[in-house]
Amino acid sequence: MNSGITSIKLVLLGEAAVGKSSIVLRFVSNDFTENKEPTIGAAFLTQRVNIGEQTVKFEIWDTAGQERFASLAPMYYRNAQAALVVYDITKPQSFIKARHWVKELHEQASKGIIIALVGNKVDIVSSGGERKVAREEAEKLAEEEGLLFFETSAKTGENVNEVFLGIGEKIPLGRPDEQSGLQNGGVRITDDQRIDLASTGSGAVAASGCNC
Amino acid sequence: MGVRSNSSEMYQREQSGSLNNGGSSHRNNSSTNLVTSLMKSWRISSSSSTSSPPQQSSRDSLISIDGNFEAMAKQQTSAKRSSPSPYSPMRYTSPGLSNSTSNLGSGGTSSSDAPRPSLITTTHRHSSTNHHHHHRRNENTGGKKVSKYFKDLDEDWSAVIDDYNMPIPVISNGGIASPATPKVGRSSSITSTPTSSTTAVAPENVNPTFSYPQLPQLKRSISSDLRSQLEMENERDAQELNAIMQRIAKFDAILKNKHIINQQELRQISWNGVPKSHRATVWKLLIGYLPANTKRQALLLQRKRREYRDGLQHIFSTKHSRDVPTWHQIEIDVPRTNPHIALYQFDSTQTSLQRILYLWAIRHPASGYVQGINDLVTPFYQTFLTEYLSASQMDDVENLDPKSYITDEQLKDVEADTFWCLTKLLEQITDNYIHGQPGILKQVKNLGQLVKRIDQDLYKHFQNEHVEFIQFAFRWMNCLLMREFQMGTVIRMWDTYLSETSPETTSSAAISSDLVPPHTPTEPKSATFQSPAQDFTSPTSASSSAKEEISKMRQSSLNEFHVFVCAAFLIKWSDQLMNMDFQEIITFLQNPPTKTWQETDIEMLLSEAYIWQSLYKDATSHWQ
Ligand SMILES: Nc1nc2c(ncn2[C@@H]2O[C@H](COP(=O)(O)OP(=O)(O)OP(=O)(O)O)[C@@H](O)[C@H]2O)c(=O)[nH]1
Ligand SMILES: [Mg+2]
Fold this sequence. Notes:
The structure holds two protein chains of two kinds.
Chain A: E1 5-14, H1 20-29, E2 42-51, E3 54-63, H2 73-77, E4 82-88, H3 92-108, E5 114-120, H4 122-126, H5 135-145, E6 148-151, H6 160-170, H7 176-180, E7 194-196
Parallel strand pairs in A: 1-3, 1-4, 2-7, 4-5, 5-6
Antiparallel strand pairs in A: 2-3
Chain B: H1 2-21, H2 29-47, H3 53-65, H4 69-78, H5 99-107, H6 117-126, H7 133-162, H8 182-186, H9 216-220, H10 224-229, H11 231-255, H12 263-271, H13 276-286, H14 294-315, H15 324-333, H16 347-363, H17 373-385, H18 408-428, H19 438-454, H20 456-464, H21 469-478, H22 487-500, H23 504-507, H24 532-535, H25 545-572, H26 574-578, H27 582-590, H28 599-615, H29 617-620
Guanosine-5'-triphosphate binds next to α1 and α4 of chain A.
């Protein structure tokens, strides 16, 4: 089954406190914490998922959002095959920042990088809070720039797995040789816990995120 | 006594010998032994500085462990620190100690005055493959009883300490009944926490004639059958307590009834830990906030606290337009600061931190607020809060709402002190937070160089696995390792770190961008917030290059030591890391197993760092 495993190196970018770490925590541990410490530098996490026949291992760099740390970002997106550009749908400023990141990625990252635009914290709107970034506006950006687009809630888990599944489906799988050159430390199989994104058939998402 | 210390020395030698034999790899043992031997040699020479025979024996044993003794001895003597006050954790001598205590020092028991003996045994705790069963067993039983014992005595300390407990405002509500928490027992801020180290002493080594002259309360507080059960432990504990009392007395000797406090002496003794009863005052002195001239202290505090209030008033007045992004960023981060500690969830705390951080950011536009600074503010804040708690409540500072025991005005004073001390600390590491964070990048680079020299195999392994130092060490530098340790451990670490801030800070308080010249303390217009043109501008504009030069000089000291601490911290896990791949290494270093670390563990680390710094002094010469 070795040939069935592919690694995807993925980076998260976005303004501070939009919920990057929370999205990763939801994806990797199906968990959420109300007050998460700001990320300093970057944090590394991994998660394996099954997409159809394929086992995909996400190697995730969750970067720090504050402007002062931005100069570190290239180190993490340089070899990435995929990027999540995250903003907070209640913070217009974070959407402006997201635009910048998309631009920078197109200019600086590797050519074939898959980018997903992620509007986080939809739960706030669901519970009566005010949306400040229109869905249409983000969709428009996604279309213009050729991005995947999702609105998520790390808090409830809504749509979080879909983001990663969407990325996984876009990456040319089954050609690990092509990617291995990009990997740090190469691909290794361990018996760590994995979630099965495609247990009910290709494209469907197992309800591993709670929808409370 | 000579014989006794010799025999325990042998015992320890056996232990380090078995470290070699059972070791998973030989690679690292040489360096471990080097450190161990050095620690021994320094310890022995310090504990025997008053009597010569043990020195000879320690020499012999060292030679048999490691033929390289002569070379090391030279290193040791030539390892002068660049700082004008050469002090060393090993060189600390304890002239005032009773017979029993010095016996304790050489017998391998942890004590505040000779913290180094514990180092040898703690080594084993971290080398997973080399656990000794008896060692672990003793650790468990001894550790538990001891900590219970400490709890019982907290009241006794307060009784003693209260007499001279600083010129501190009276607790407004008369004190709060503090529920006993497990934390209290850990006595996290007393310089020595009992641990496995006590097991290095065979029972025969305990001086049977020991009695408790300094601790009459001791007998009273313990029932007699418990006493017979715990006799051995008790005696050792009593010795440790004695040592702690002695230590407190030493701080008193330096601080009380002095016109001018001897800063060098204070730095020396504080390097090895500050008793919680004295910590707030000592930190303020070490960082250069409080002047050494005690006659001026009250006035200075008064002035600085007023200045802080004026500063707040200024930035929150209509004259000053709010820096919205900065305010907003701090507002987001404050609730995310130490989310696991209750203290930081209270509104009063969060309001304090918001004000302190915002004022600091506005006054330091060259760096502004950078994430991580919110971490650095907290050890000061909670330490200064303890000034308003009785000795028995101090350990509870992390659970109590400040509002419940101090007034708003007192809280502002705490904030002011925190603000100024944070300012002083950040002055020493300015380059870490300005644009591009050159200070951090340089430190990360230096760390790599250092590890390459100290532990080449690990360095190569990282290269092979494509692990880059910046991937894990950036945070170590940005938050001074605070994210890697529990708060209690961090605070102990800061005793040492603040002792490492260069003395220039203290002697040249006038040079600080924020202080008015000390010669004119009474000048009415000296509170400076009225003149924002001067005080709110970036560090570069204000008076002149001399200031910059001095601040450069100052910056080297703490930063440099910190790199050595990071190196010691990394190399501590070397054996494990060698067997890991990229992913495992990064994951491990992001979550190092330090949750259970005690003060002795951090003291071990700091001592190792000190030794590396002495041995690799030459490596730092081109670090500028
Ligand atoms: N309501 C709600 N809050 C969220 C959501 N995701 C994150 N948060 C909260 O937003 C704050 C910031 O979340 P983080 O995940 O730390 O944000 P980040 O983007 O990693 O921030 P930096 O590490 O500083 O760049 C935390 O207090 C989270 O609890 C969400 O989907 N809904
Ligand atoms: Mg984060």
